[in-house]
Amino acid sequence: MPLIHFTGPAPRSAPGTTPHPGGLRAGLARRMELLGWSLLLLLASVTAGALLTLWSTALALVLIGAGLPLALLATVLVRWFADRHRAWAGKWLAEPVARPYLPVPEGNWLIRLWAILKDPATWRDWAWLVVDSVAGWFTAGGSFLMFAGGLFYLLYPLVFALTPPQVFRTPLGPRFHLETVAESFVMVPLGLVLLVLWYVGAVPLARLNALVIRSLLAPTEEARLRARVAQLAASRAETVDTQAGELRRIERDLHDGAQARLASLGMNLGLAEQLLADDPQAVARLLAEARESTSTALSELRDLVRGIHPPVLADRGLDGAIQALALAGSVPTTVSIHIPGRLPAAVESAAYFAVAEALANAIKHAHAHRVVIRLEYTADGGGLSILVSDDGRGGASFEGGTGLRGIERRLSAFDGTMSVDSPMGGPTDVRMSLPCVLS
Fold first, then answer.
1. d(Cα 260, Cα 293) in Å, to the nearest integer?
2. How many Cα atoms sit within 13 Å of 270 on the Cβ side?
3. Which of 6, 17, 84, 290 is deepest in the core (most CB within 10 A)?
4. CA-CA-CA-CA torsion for 110, 116, 120, 121, nearest 10 degrees?
5. Is residue 141 a contact partner of residue 41, using CB atoms and an 8 Å limit?
6. Which CA distances in Å does 108 have to 54, 112, 114?
């Protein structure tokens, strides 16, 4: 019997917006982590200048009839470099930064290069290289330079004592000359000030760097709308195909099942009518066959109705329907549900069949010994989130013929998404989301 419970997730906050537990120690650890990132991003600014030079040179060679391989190589490097920065910005802003590139068509180098050059995102990458090679020194580099300067001036007396008299004697210019170690202590407060500025400014500078990256490397509003239209067109086509296939299945099931049995029932009743006066025993056998055909036809019709919209959804809602699925399964299933109300009927149906298919895959194909099903509704735009996890053999994929494509097509009709994490040997996590509101 499945265990029904719900455990709410721990609240999360965007990095840098809410103090971490642990006070000053946690804040210092966070800033030391940012210090490492600042050094990497500072080196990346230097790399951006080098890539800008390489790319400009490659494009110049293309204009004079040479440099196609170099231009494609430079484009690949720039896009990989930009992807790393998108990942950094998405991690810091707690919001993924999507790739804005158009698909590159198949063909020779010239066709592919021409498609890349026509992509507006390519030129925004070029503009970002220009900005990053300069602005990186003030955003990512500023934090590192403040820390390095603060540490240097904090240890200035030691530096003064260990270095020759020709160096580090005029830290603020030729008009400010230090003669003794005791005089060099005047620079220690400046080191403290710089370290305080680093502690206070590390988070805003990192966020500013992430915002600069997102402003130039994220898809534009026009690109988002274009991608959205393409997604909706594909979703509509898949929905139409799915509905057509479903109608053909219903027609086939009716024709081969209930319709054939009802036709046989009519023939038996007609034959019984003819034999009623001459052979009562034969009539009794025909009526028994008719009664059996009627029972079988009704059972097939019930199964057909369940395949269209299970009655348990209308009677008990999605919670009860999922619990019924778990109870009917042949493996121990833990169900965790938190839905504060009823969802639209179409969404409940899509979620039910998606969970049913994922559960069937876990039992039949993954040979799981235990399954976990979690459903949670988030009111602030998150919609319904579904997780079906099992401890089976893993290796599930959309190309594996396990029905995952069918689930994806069903969810896409509602603008839903689906992801599968299933390494060989397991476990398998099937995550689904359905944007919706409570009815």
1. 10
2. 6
3. 290
4. -160
5. yes
6. 22, 6, 10
The DSSP secondary-structure symbol of 419 reads E
377 - beta bridge partners? Answer: 384
Q: What are phi and psi of 21, to 5 degrees?
A: -60, 145
What pLDDT, in 10s, does the model give residues 234-263?
666 665 666 666 666 666 766 666 667 777
CB 81 within 8 A of CB 133: no
Q: CA-CA distance, 112 to 103, in Å (whole number)? A: 10
CB atoms within 10 A of CB 197: 16
Scanning 64-139, the segments in alpha helix (DSSP H) are 68-93, 109-118, 120-135
pTM exceeds 0.70: no
Residue with tokens 């925004």: 124
Under the banding of pLDDT at 50, 70 and 90, the label for residue 8 is very low
Per-residue pLDDT tens for 149-180? 888 888 888 888 888 877 777 777 777 777 78
> What is the SS3 assignment for 51?
helix
Given pLDDT bands bounded at 50, 70 and 90, which one contains residue 4? Answer: very low
User: Could you read off the pLDDT of 363-422 as tens digits, one per residue?
Assistant: 888 888 889 999 988 877 668 888 998 888 888 777 665 577 777 777 877 778 888 888
Task: Return the residue matching tokens 């003669």.
Answer: 179
Q: Largest Cα–Cα distance in the chain?
A: 135
Q: Cα(398)–Cα(421) distance, rounded to whole angstroms? A: 11
Q: What is the DSSP string of 256-301?
A: IIIHHHHHHHHHHHHHHHHHTTT-HHHHHHHHHHHHHHHHHHHHHH
Owner of token pair 């397991």? 426
> How far apart, in Å, are the Cα atoms of 150 and each of 24, 161, 193, 197, 201?
19, 18, 7, 9, 13
Q: At 398, phi and psi to the nearest 5? A: -70, -20
Burial class (CB in 10 A: 0-12, 13-18, 19+), 136: buried
Distance, in Å, from the CA atom of 394 to the CA atom of 324, rounded to the nearest integer, reads 25
Phi then psi for residue 370, to 5 deg, are: -155, 140
Give the integer Cα–Cα distance in Å for 396 and 388: 13
Q: Name the phi and psi angles at 30, rounded to 5.
A: -65, -40
